[in-house]
Recover the amino acids of this structure.
């Protein structure tokens, strides 16, 4: 424990914590669920990525150049796109272009608003603020957009006859898929809404817990967490909305016919 009362985790402590991953893998093998390898690979990937980003952030915090910080944000967005694509079982037409532009515009716009007007730090590229905040907004927005894309694909597949009938009766493509868009947008917001509903009573969020453990006053940590959740909600909504507004058009031909 240091002079701030913070308990420093040594390598032995991390190895002991990793025993919980082995426990999860053992349960999977015992129940023959076939997930043990996936759990182990995900845990290994998490460790490698966090160690890499830790050393990289140490370098970035010491250099503090806008080009380097912006490059890291672009790389983060690129990796989020790759993860979203690898997790999607069925992809909408033009998935990567639609998802990429939605993430950049939705997350980028919300992050800029939040950092410039809500937090108001200077300079704008201060990595100690910009990178973690963008990462939190990006991670949640990617999840919401992925849910929206998958739900839209499923809805249009299930409602094909209904959509084609609406088109025959003179509806525009937007009108024909209105229900599908509404359901997809609702699906994108479910994880965020559940998190907000349970926050503070059922669970303590990670950022708030980390700040309290590092010695920050609970009242200050709570204000930061409230602000962060507002930004996350806005990022998820904006990214999912942009994806759906671009995505549904990909299912129709220039003649406004549903693609086969």
């Amino acid at each position: 424990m240091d002079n701030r009362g913070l308990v420093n985790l040594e390598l032995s402590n991390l190895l002991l914590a990793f025993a919980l991953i082995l426990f999860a893998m053992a349960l999977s093998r015992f129940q023959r669920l076939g997930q043990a390898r996936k759990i182990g690979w995900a845990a290994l990937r998490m460790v490698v990525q966090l160690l890499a980003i830790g050393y990289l952030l140490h370098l970035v915090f010491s250099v503090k150049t806008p080009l380097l910080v912006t490059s890291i944000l672009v790389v983060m967005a690129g990796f989020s796109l790759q993860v979203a694509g690898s997790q999607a079982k069925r992809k909408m037409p033009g998935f990567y272009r639609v998802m990429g532009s939605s993430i950049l515009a939705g997350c980028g716009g919300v992050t800029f608003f939040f950092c410039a007007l809500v937090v108001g730090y200077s300079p704008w590229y201060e990595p100690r603020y910009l990178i973690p905040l963008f990462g939190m907004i990006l991670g949640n927005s990617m999840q919401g957009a992925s849910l929206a894309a998958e739900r839209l694909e499923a809805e249009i597949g299930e409602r094909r006859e209904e959509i084609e009938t609406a088109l025959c009766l003179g509806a525009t493509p937007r009108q024909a898929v209105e229900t599908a868009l509404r359901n997809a947008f609702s699906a994108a917001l479910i994880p965020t809404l559940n998190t907000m509903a349970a926050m503070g009573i059922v669970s303590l969020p990670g950022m708030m817990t980390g700040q309290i453990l590092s010695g920050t006053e609970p009242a200050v940590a709570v204000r930061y967490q409230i602000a962060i959740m507002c930004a996350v909600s806005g990022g998820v909504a904006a990214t999912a909305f942009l994806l759906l507004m671009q995505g549904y058009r990909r299912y129709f031909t220039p003649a406004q016919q549903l693609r086969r």
Summary: The chain has a mean pLDDT of 87. The chain has two domains: 1-62, 66-251. The domain at 66-251 is CATH 1.20.1640 (Multidrug efflux transporter AcrB transmembrane fold).
